[in-house]
Design goal:
The structure is a single chain. The chain contains 18 helices and 16 strands. It is of the alpha/beta class. Helix 7 packs antiparallel against helix 8 (121-134) and helix 13 packs across helix 14.
Length: 477
């Protein structure tokens, strides 16, 4: 057993970086970029933890993980114990360890930020989850008393999976309805293989199914059955159908043949395995010069995917500067290392095409930053007469997504806001209709996996309270 080292020695240690694939090699394959900690790396990094009490990092975790406890288990080489500690509050640790923005949440709250770098909590969570998968560690739950109430979850993304798993652990009979032919939501169709291998997603969904959760695919809520019909069959409904409708700029040329939404581009590659063509019969056209509009995580995913699919030059076009880009800093660094070109302070105004309707270029205008807007970021302002042409043959629009109205249209008396997202009580995720709850991107727009997990946890507790004690929850309206 490894012992905790003295505090002074812990504080002298610097953060242990996680090894990664070489940028030149990884830019041409879909293998995972970070290679993960070794046992020795994980113990070294875990020994840095000061075991604060109370621990500020816990307050920064929407999944409510008992961070000091699981890190102590790593120091003691009880990796199974560390895994089971995480599972007490988070059913998706391998995913969270890879894609959650720990630098803005748990790691941001770490006391080491006052001097040096925080504990690499995400890397340690990933190590523990991967070790547990390799050694087939199972969660041993106490005898669960089954309850005679039925719950349904619409959508199998991180919010839906979390809510379903928590409800199953409470003894409820839970069914997930998923519109696509594979469960996982954005975890499956949105995030590329090199950031989140699909075997990881499949493994964690299989664990949730082992809790007794039923997953029904090819079920489009709002078409296959309405939300109103589901409320008649089930005692509680959790809407976690995401925000999967792409947004567009509505500029000339946006309907040309070679203009993708990031949703379509990534779904073809990830869910439909276009990156393995012709092994998988899903063609995807990637030209020599690709322009990706936007600078969020989805834009980074689309740009890096296009590069791996064979594009020679990939440009990310963003109307603000690097400092305002919403993508994780790590994703921007990885993209830069791989050769992605960033065109900051540029706004597309027109997409050019030939007589066949194929893209031949994109006209942009240069921007400058003015005063901050309502988002707190400085407002981009066009510079008159600064238009220029980019020579591109593929354009990928990654400026965001919005709510698909199909589900909301079938949900009588469930209020939505002006953007089409369900309006809920923050503490309970209760909507304006009794017995109907909502969480994830469908209440907040495109957000993080860990935020969706937090919604799923709050909703599960609220649904349990509702089904146990009746309608005593705060509601909207």
């Amino acid at each position: 057993m490894v012992e905790m080292i003295p505090v002074k020695e812990r504080m002298k240690r610097s953060q242990r970086p996680m090894p990664e694939q070489d940028p030149k090699e990884r830019a041409r394959n879909f293998d995972e970029v970070p290679l993960g900690y070794t046992k020795e790396d994980a113990i070294y990094e875990a020994q840095r933890c000061l075991q604060c009490d109370p621990a500020p990092c816990v307050g920064g975790c929407p999944a409510e993980i008992h961070i000091p406890q699981f890190i102590r288990e790593i120091v003691e080489e009880d990796f199974a114990g560390a895994y089971l500690e995480i599972l007490k509050t988070n059913n998706l640790p391998a995913m969270c360890g890879r894609v959650c923005p720990q630098e803005e949440q748990c790691q941001k709250a770490c006391v080491y930020n006052k001097k040096g770098k925080p504990i690499a909590i995400g890397g340690l969570e990933r190590f523990v989850a991967d070790w547990a998968r390799k050694h087939d560690i199972k969660e041993k739950l106490p005898g669960i008393k089954k309850k005679d109430k039925l719950s349904v979850v619409v959508g199998s993304g991180p919010a839906g999976l979390t809510c379903a798993a928590d409800l199953a652990k409470m003894g409820y009979d839970v069914t997930i309805f998923e519109a696509l032919h594979k469960p996982g939501g954005v975890l499956t169709y949105g995030i590329p293989e090199f950031r989140l291998p699909k075997k990881i997603v499949e493994h964690e969904i299989a664990k949730i199914k082992e809790l007794g959760v039923k997953v029904v695919t090819d079920f489009v809520a709002g078409l296959t059955k309405s939300v109103d019909e589901l409320t008649e069959e089930f005692d509680a409904v959790f809407l976690a159908n995401g925000a999967g409708a792409p947004q567009f700029m509505y500029i000339p040329g946006e309907n040309l043949n070679d203009v993708y939404s990031a949703n379509e581009f990534l779904t073809r590659s990830n869910l439909m395995k276009a990156y393995k063509f012709p092994e998988f019969d899903t063609p995807i056209k990637v030209g020599k010069r690709v322009a990706v509009i936007g600078a969020g995580n989805v834009a980074m995913d689309a740009a890096r995917t296009a590069l791996r699919l064979g594009a020679k030059d990939v440009h990310v076009v963003y109307r603000r500067t690097k400092e305002e880009a919403p993508a994780r800093a790590e994703e921007i660094v990885h993209a830069e290392e791989e050769g992605i070109v960033f065109d900051f302070l540029a706004l597309p105004v027109r997409i050019l095409g030939d007589e066949k309707g194929d893209v031949t270029g994109m006209e942009c205008i240069k921007m400058r930053l003015g005063e901050p807007d309502e988002s707190g970021r400085r407002k981009p302002i066009p510079i008159e007469g600064s238009n220029f042409i980019m020579q591109v043959d593929i354009v990928i629009n990654a400026i965001g997504t919005t709510a698909n109205p199909i589900v909301a249209r079938s949900a009588t008396d469930v209020q939505t806001n002006k953007w089409g997202y369900f309006t809920v009580d923050e503490k309970t995720c209760a909507t304006s209709r009794e017995g109907v709850f909502a969480g994830g991107d469908i209440i907040r727009g495109s957000a993080t996996v860990i935020s969706a997990i937090g919604d799923g946890k709050r909703a599960a507790r609220a649904i349990d309270h509702y089904l146990s004690f009746g309608n005593t929850l705060r509601k909207i309206g």
